[in-house]
């Protein structure tokens, strides 16, 4: 375990300073929140202890600016009913409960970059809420476009893909980052996107809208996708979880 944690601590995340628009607008229109290239594991600033302390202090400051889950849901106008429906129907598998209980009493927190319009967030946030209750883990929520400085610390392939879950310990040291989706969901999304004709095709917009309606319906109704999110979060946090 110690060896793995040391490996995790040496991973350096690429923090692009600028925003490469890329698929940003299409991602918002389409529903799913990003490119699917996941960032996982601990990201440690270059510069040793002082840089790590500064990074922790920055995350502590961001924590105070986040919304509670209740406030986030109260502000939703697009996917509120679907998010609440998933939360009501999802249940943590019994085999996972013991793992998440390991976090109890250790003061871990999660900073969650999200947006109401994002289909991936609609699906992942309610799954995480079950995890947070089992782990006794507090969370704060940040609307992507309202917090560009925080979002730009966690770009995926240069894009503002969401959701992103940033896990910190009691000292606000960053321990792991997850998002925007598990590989099983990414494979499905890649497959359905191939059905969309090129942008210069007259049918492009019609087919794209139909495809993403299908994606949204699948996200809202497929328990296998919800289970994949929990399992991938567990894989991401396993190397750094309390013993």
From TrEMBL:
InterPro entries: Thioredoxin-like_sf. SUPFAM superfamilies: Thioredoxin-like (SSF52833). It comes from the Bacteria. Residues 18-31 have a biased composition (Basic and acidic residues). Residues 1-45 are annotated as: Disordered. This is Thioredoxin family protein. It comes from Hydrogenibacillus schlegelii (Bacillus schlegelii).
């Amino acid at each position: 375990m110690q060896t793995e944690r040391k490996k995790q601590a040496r991973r350096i995340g690429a923090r692009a300073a600028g925003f490469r628009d890329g698929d940003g607008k299409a991602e918002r229109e389409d529903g799913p929140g990003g490119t699917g290239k996941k960032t996982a594991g601990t990201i440690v600033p270059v510069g040793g202890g002082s840089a790590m302390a500064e990074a922790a202090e920055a995350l502590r400051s961001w924590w105070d600016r986040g919304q509670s889950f209740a406030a986030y849901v109260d502000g939703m106008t697009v996917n509120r009913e679907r998010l609440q429906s998933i939360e009501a129907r999802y249940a943590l598998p019994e085999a996972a409960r013991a793992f998440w209980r390991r976090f109890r009493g250790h003061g871990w927190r999660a900073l969650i970059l999200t947006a109401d319009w994002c289909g991936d967030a609609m699906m992942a946030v309610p799954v995480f809420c079950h995890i947070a209750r089992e782990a006794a883990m507090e969370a704060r929520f940040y609307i992507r476009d309202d917090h560009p400085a925080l979002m730009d610390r966690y770009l995926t392939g240069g894009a503002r893909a969401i959701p992103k879950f940033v896990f910190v310990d009691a000292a606000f040291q960053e321990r792991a980052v997850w998002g925007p989706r598990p590989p099983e969901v990414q494979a499905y999304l890649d497959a359905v996107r191939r059905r969309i004709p090129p942008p210069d095709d007259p049918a492009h917009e019609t087919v794209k809208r139909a495809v993403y309606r299908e994606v949204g319906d699948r996200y809202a109704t497929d328990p296998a996708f919800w289970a994949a999110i929990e399992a991938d979060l567990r894989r991401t946090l396993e190397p750094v979880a309390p013993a």
